[in-house]
Amino acid sequence: MAIKTVGAVAALLMGATGLAACGDSADGSEGGGDDGKIVMGFAQVGAESGWRTANTESIKESAEEAGIELKFSDAQGKQENQITAIRSYIQQKVDIIAFSPVVETGWDAVLQEAKAAGIPVILTDRAVDSEDTSLYETFLGSDFVKEGQDAGQWLVDNAAEADVDGDGDVNVVQLEGTTGAAPAIDRGEGFAEAIAADPSIEVTASQTGDFTRDGGKQVMESFLNSEEGIDVVFAHNDDMGLGAIEAIEAAGLEPGKDIKIITVDAVHDGMQALADGKINFIVECNPLLGPQLMDLAQQVLDGEDIPERVVTEETTFTQEQAIEALPDRKY
Ligand code: GZL
Ligand code: ZN
Fold first, then answer.
1. CATH superfamily of 144-285
2. Where does the Periplasmic binding protein domain start and stop, copy by copy (predicted)?
3. Which ligand is nearest to the CA of 160?
4. Which end of the chain has fewer CB atoms < 10 Å from its terminal CB, N or C?
């Protein structure tokens, strides 16, 4: 039975506080668009992984379905590009701004500018470390610490099988996500917390592969040259795990057997590798945030109170569960 973590926080929405949505048109209908439509500016991280692609599609499709005019930018993984995009949305006087902060730090100034311009901001997917939570309406995204804990807990529960070389130690190499990104920091933290329960499990090497397939492959190649007795790879996302599979196979080893692999995301290619036995366990991270984002945007502009944190529903998959789930997966 897949571990079901229904984390959706569904605080009851209080009555409208009468906040006028900025950009109300003369006839009182909302939204800055010339046809009274809500205009949303979305500053996306980039296109680094299968997860990101699915996330972008979900946001674009949901805006379309909700009748929200979407201005969309891809920052190619650079914070300065996201900040520039947010500033341009402020200039264009959009009704609401949403973005997925590529890293946790360095957002206060631009969020202050949005606040001063009276434009509400919704964080999606990744968090910021700003102390001042008045700078954004809510954070819609996963509990990354829990994702790391679920990955670590599977390893604790399967330590005997995971000690592939039978030396009594479960040696783990870790492929970290983008340095400074909330999912990378928190998944690493959660994983370390969970494996502390079993002293025979140790992370012997850890390096960022920047959430990309190529990054995962290159770092795994270097680990295979520098580390003795690798039993397990913990990759912070499927794409780096898939890159690690390429490196492991190039070294003449069998991924999933000679070296166990645990990843996070559960995008299609990851789930296929899991079903094929090349990955051993995947913790899901749901990229389909579009529908909830558009609902939250409407609620904010209707002046309704919304929860300050909305956690997405997620589960985990073993190889058997992946075989079962694959046919119905949307991404
Ligand atoms: C997690 C998201 C991460 C994914 C990666 O919510 O920010 O970024 O796990 C993606 O695949 O690149
Ligand atoms: Zn071992």
1. Response regulator (3.40.50.2300)
2. 46-304
3. 2
4. N
